[in-house]
Amino acid sequence: MRGFGRTLIRAWRDPRARWPKRVALVLAVLLVVPVVTGAAALRLNYAGELLDGTQTRGRDAIWLGHAWVDGRKKDADIDAFARRIKGTGIRDLYVHTGPLEHNGTLPADRHPRARWLIDAVHREMPGVRVHAWLGDKLATESPDGLRLERAASRAAVVRSAEQILDVGFDGVHFDLEPLHSDDRDYLSLLDDLRVLTRARDVPLSVAAHQIDPLPALHSAAGALAGHPKWWSQAFFAEVARRVDQIAVMSYDTALPVESLYGGYVAQQTSLALEVTPEDTDLLMGLPFYHTEELGHHAHAETAAAAVRGARLGLGRTDRDRERFGVALYVDFAATEADWTAYRQGWGCVAAKC
Length: 353
Prior knowledge:
By secondary structure, this protein is an alpha/beta fold. The protein has helices at residues 2-13, 18-45, 75-85, 114-124, 151-167, 184-200, 217-225, 233-240, 258-275, 303-317, 336-346; strands spanning 60-64, 90-96, 129-137, 171-177, 204-208, 245-248, 281-287, 324-329.
């Protein structure tokens, strides 16, 4: 290895390597400078004062796992959960009730205890709404999955929503992934779902991808990696206009440092606030899970950083907006530290929670 190193040094010093060295330096600058500049901008975005009034409006939500509708949860779990959220701003429960089949249908045997859950929540947690969380993998990046371009599949999804509302749910929440920006078939589906939910007088909500932190970043990501992770801000606005609630999945960012992640959430909050209609609830996702993988570093993506970022973005962009909250993902992975960060950072609607 030492001999190889000396060879590299000699090659670098060779006068004939002048132009290759210049090319290498230019490429290094082109790669490094944007990364450093972006990191500095996110860190700066995380700085500043938290303004009064940038706390809970009583419009928060939490994603709940499938155990609540398949028979694993009991009355004691309801009592414990009611105590857990007492006094907080949690108003909506997104309860995993699917998944949908790839043709858009929903087998009834996937939620045998749904009616028990709905009745128990209404009894023990007055004012809290129970939404059926439905979703499926989309066939956007692989041959398997739900194909929204098929009118029959979209119609089946609407029938599934009608079927689940017949059970007694207070609303329906959709999470379809990976969903590419500018998908007109998705917008068509939302239009059809909105007809149903308005007729039933129940809310329609969706989980949303993050917004391009740089212009057209989703297009570049799609071309380079085949996975356009972000939505354009314009497409986010199109979705937000068609629903009653939109919850940004503001996690899985791959950012390695808490301050950068918090700055990113602040930026996402501002971008979403700029285009979400006043009559649509905007919720920013809080990571209540701790897996370690390429896209998520638990030491960086903390609930505390997300809360601070959401408050900073709210204070800078639309401090007085009422239809704003946070959404906690997910109940079965949450720790006491997560709940404490939520309560202390985001506040309570009651004197004590």
